[in-house]
Predict the structure.
Amino acid sequence: MEQLIFKIPKEYQFLVNQLFEIEKKVNDIQESNSIQRNIDRIKSFFETELLKDGSGFVYHNPKGENWDESRIDCEANISGTGTENLEIIDVIKPMIIYKYKSIDPITSQEVIKPFIVQKAIVIVKSKNSE
């Protein structure tokens, strides 16, 4: 994913972060299906309907993914003493990705290009430590 500089309105960033927080909390509730449906509708709105040109925002929760210093999509705090074989154990803020339409210069076809407008803020821990 190419890294471009793109500022989104603070209000959009705030709303996407709040939606992420709500979704994290819903996962802890039993019988959360009706709430999850509403969350999915809002996510779909941000991805396809918010901006009239077909571009939109999505967020990604990298919890459970491997982490190393070469990742440019996350800012991490290391929990514990181990620094090898690191895994993301908690996500404070999600990665927010802006997807926009562009024309591929080689094929002249329309493509969707993503780039990060907010790095994920995560806590990582070594898989080797208990």
Observations:
- The first strand starts at residue 56 and ends at 60.
- The chain has two helices and seven strands.
- The chain has one domain: 10-126.
- The CA atoms of residues 41 and 47 lie 10 Å apart.
